[in-house]
Amino acid sequence: MGHNVAMPKIAAASVAEHRAQIEEKLLDAAEALLRAGLPLTAGKVTKDAGIARNSIYRYVDSIDDLRGMVIARHLPGWAQAVEAAVAAVDDPGERIVIWMEANLEQAAETGHGWLMQMAQQPGPSRVTSAVADQAHNVLRASLIDAWRSLHPDPELARLHIALTRGVLQSAFVQLDGGFPPEKLIPAVTAATRALVRSSTE
Question: Is 64 part of any domain?
Answer without folding.
Answer: no
